[in-house]
């Protein structure tokens, strides 16, 4: 058991907190008696202090030439690489993510650093022609200032790095409020960044609960010490953050939930579609924002596809996440409780396949193979529902658990309409051997990310990541697109004519 209690504000210089609200125990969800971290939680005043501290440190950081900031990011990436196994091991221990996936998650940080090292030498501005002679126009990318980054714990290191790396590279300071249930992992990542040379005041790690975070953020916005808010989490919390930021004329970067559809057409390779559905529907216990939510299957292949998927699900191995399993436990108690609520709401008209039972494993043996001891952690049966209707709550809401529902369609237009119906727009997939079907699907579906013959989950460091509708406000993380979140354009007009030239006045005289 972890004996030390960590302060609620952490920087390499061990800055203390001005206001604390309590203590949080981060537990291993596969072995609930294993306390991974014990942390103090900050009060709103401490969040304000952290932002003020960041404001001062940012000015100096912005003066470091961008290519040198890029070198710090390069060093960070190499340190993460050198500590890949231990960081992945900590992810597995703290949130129950299967170790192989945790390794993949850490790789995402390394890839993100690799991409942004180069951006340090590329933060290009433009030279722009003027309407007038003897005058030159320029544009520059300027850092926004202080970014408050609030992240979920299902991707406790990769997703935070999607914000931290570009924000720091672009010359901003960050106040990072990670999910409490991923406290130890967050600290391990921040420590690597500080060791790589990110100054303490430029990256501030603050532990806080939701109430204090909202209050602290409001106070910091009011005081004018936060210039950008990045948030990954639920659509409900995202919309509250959007409202709050709007009051202070801020446009946050919101990466929210998903109800990601997968369409299986009559010409699809059904075995490939089964693999994709299994991985993105139940992998990570369905706890990715990109997890598969609704399977939309053509009537002609419904019976065959459903039988094969049911069989694959029963053959799956779940359990102890240190082993090679499809999925391990729920992230923490709060997520387990939420999933139980969703299971309670399932209407009676569905056919439940895939498992003999629904609910916590331990109350009854799973039909899928279970490795480990189900009684020590937050393990749940896989659920596959058939006969979903488009007005079912479980069809319309994100479930964030190991559950997928099947509905059927006849025309591609109908499939697209069903895919768009829940109003989210993060990720969508189509399985087809006909390129025209794939392109028509891409055009019609309202998702930010579309896959053809691949699952709804997954991300590459140089491709825009983000969604529309209930999935976010259109901001994109990753690749060069995220730079627009963490810089603002400034123009310079430089007149060397020696006379007063007035814009829009002299056009006819030329
Ligand atoms: C998230 O769940 O918040 O799609 C992000 C994936 C990830 C990103 C998920 N790389 O699997």
UniProtKB/TrEMBL annotation:
Region called Disordered, residue ranges? 1-21
Per the UniProt entry, the Enzyme Commission number(s) are 1.2.1.3
A GO molecular function annotation here is: aldehyde dehydrogenase (NAD+) activity
The record's keywords, sorted A to Z, are: NAD, Oxidoreductase
Q: Which residues form the Aldehyde dehydrogenase domain?
A: 22-491
Active site residues according to the UniProt entry: 255
Q: Name one Pfam family in it.
A: Aldedh
InterPro entries given in the database record: Ald_DH/histidinol_DH, Ald_DH_C, Ald_DH_CS_GLU, Ald_DH_N, Aldehyde_DH_dom, ALDH7A1-like
Q: How does it assemble?
A: Homotetramer.
Family assignment from sequence similarity? Belongs to the aldehyde dehydrogenase family.
Please give the name of this protein.
aldehyde dehydrogenase (NAD(+))
Query: Source taxonomy lineage?
Result: Bacteria, Bacillati, Actinomycetota, Actinomycetes, Pseudonocardiales
């Amino acid at each position: 058991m972890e004996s030390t209690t960590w302060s609620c504000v952490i920087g390499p210089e061990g800055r203390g907190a001005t206001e604390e609200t309590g203590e949080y125990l981060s537990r291993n969800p596969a072995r609930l008696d294993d306390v991974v971290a014990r942390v103090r939680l900050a009060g709103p005043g401490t969040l304000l202090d952290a932002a003020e501290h960041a404001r001062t440190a940012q000015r100096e950081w912005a003066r470091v030439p961008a290519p040198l900031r890029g070198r710090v990011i390069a060093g960070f990436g190499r340190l993460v690489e050198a500590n890949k196994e231990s960081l992945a091991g900590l992810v597995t221990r703290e949130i129950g993510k299967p170790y192989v996936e945790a390794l993949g998650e850490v790789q995402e940080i390394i890839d993100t650093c690799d991409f942004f090292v180069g951006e340090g030498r590329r933060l290009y501005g433009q030279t722009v022609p003027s309407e007038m002679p003897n005058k030159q126009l320029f544009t520059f990318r300027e850092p926004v200032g202080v970014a408050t980054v609030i992240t979920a714990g299902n991707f406790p290191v990769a997703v935070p790095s999607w914000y931290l790396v570009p924000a720091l590279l672009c010359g901003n300071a960050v106040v990072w409020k990670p999910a409490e249930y991923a406290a130890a992992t967050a600290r391990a990542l921040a420590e690597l960044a500080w060791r790589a040379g990110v100054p303490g005041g430029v990256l501030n790690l603050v532990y806080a609960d939701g109430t204090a975070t909202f209050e602290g953020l409001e106070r910091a916005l009011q005081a004018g010490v936060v210039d950008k808010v990045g948030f990954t989490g639920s659509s409900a919390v995202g919309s509250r953050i959007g409202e709050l930021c709007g009051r202070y004329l801020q446009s946050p970067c919101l990466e929210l939930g998903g109800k990601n559809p997968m369409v299986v057409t009559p010409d699809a390779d059904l075995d490939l579609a089964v693999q994709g559905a299994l991985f993105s529907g139940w992998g990570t216990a369905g706890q990715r924002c990109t997890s598969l939510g609704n399977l939309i299957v053509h009537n002609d292949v419904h019976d065959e596809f459903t039988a094969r998927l049911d069989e694959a699900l029963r053959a799956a191995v779940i359990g102890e996440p240190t082993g090679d399993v499809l999925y391990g436990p729920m992230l923490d108690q709060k997520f387990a409780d939420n999933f139980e609520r969703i299971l309670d709401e399932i209407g009676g008209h569905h056919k439940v396949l895939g498992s003999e039972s629904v609910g916590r494993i331990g109350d009854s043996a799973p039909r899928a193979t279970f490795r480990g001891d189900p009684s020590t952690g937050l393990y749940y049966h896989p659920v596959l529902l058939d006969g979903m209707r488009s007005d079912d709550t479980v069809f319309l809401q994100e479930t964030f658990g190991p559950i997928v529902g099947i509905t059927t369609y006849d025309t591609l237009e109908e499939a697209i309409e069903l895919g768009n119906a829940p109003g989210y727009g993060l990720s969508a997939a189509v399985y087809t051997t006909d390129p025209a079907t794939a392109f028509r699907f891409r055009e019609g579906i309202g998702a930010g990310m579309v896959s053809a013959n691949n699952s709804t989950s997954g991300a590459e460091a140089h491709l825009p990541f983000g969604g529309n509708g209930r999935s976010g406000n259109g901001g994109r993380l990753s690749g060069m697109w995220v730079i627009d979140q963490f810089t603002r354009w400034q123009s310079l007009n430089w007149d060397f004519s020696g006379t007063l030239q007035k814009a829009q006045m002299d056009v006819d005289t030329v």
